[in-house]
């Protein structure tokens, strides 16, 4: 998967973690996701009623189409929250705009993610 991430100062560990989590989700890499989240992590795709828990994540990711390119165009963090947004390109040539919003356990720079919300727009 080709990955492009906007330039940033590297001074925001939580912003970097949000970007890394987004990359892990796009790669369908449950082990990498696990390194960024708590055991009680939940993931919501906005507009769907499903709340995906960590034990169900691998199965849910396997249902998603393969991403060939991820472009992170913007990322921000403040307090115990962070977000990143950009575009996903799929094998069939289709693409989606996305925004991942994550909430950390606390404001520590090495805090784990406890919750994530993803918005998709065609």
TrEMBL record:
Name of this protein: Uncharacterized protein
Q: What is the lineage of its organism?
A: Bacteria, Bacillati, Bacillota, Bacilli, Bacillales
